Amino acid sequence: MQAIAISGSPRKQGNTETLLQRCLDRLEDRGVQGELVPLRDKTIKGCRACTTCNRLRDKTCSQKDDDFHPVFEKMQHADIIVVGSPVYFGSATPEMMALLDRAGYVSRANGNLFSRKIGGPVAIARRAGHNFTFAQLLMWFMINDMVVPGSSYWNVALAREAGEVARDSEALATIERFADNLAWLAERLA
Fold first, then answer.
1. pLDDT tens-place string over residues 136-162
2. Dihedral (Cα; 30, 32, 33, 38), 10-degree rounding
3. Which of these, 3, 16, 100, 120, could form a disulfide with 9 (CB 3.0-4.6 Å)?
4. Domains in the chain: how many in total?
């Protein structure tokens, strides 16, 4: 089993990366190898709805930025996909949505490449908006025919300054239970 956790945060070692790494560490404890992929230093343009992926059906996007295809390939090879984003004015970061929009279009144009993969979202907010962002990201998993296990609460946290998420004990327990459920489900579906 292979997992990928994608961080939409521009901050290196910020709260989003911390929570995603916690998820990956818990998965590793359960025998699932994983990789954290931060989008902060990558250039991934938004989808142009050009529909070239529908015409070509070759698992590629026609845009010529260098960073989309390597991340997309990792998503294709992963059994488990977890995405995380801080909240920006009530929604996920533009970098995260650019990746997910394009990945979703290319996947659906090529026979639903993410169908029945396992995963789910994580959202971190300073004060509010995390439920909207969580739902926004969850919709991507749902429309891509993916399987999302639950947890003891929604996969959300409250934090602003780097490291602050470590004090949100409920969020930490929730993400650990989510990781346990990901591993449990992956084992049963293998």
1. 999 999 999 999 999 999 999 999 999
2. -100
3. 16
4. 1
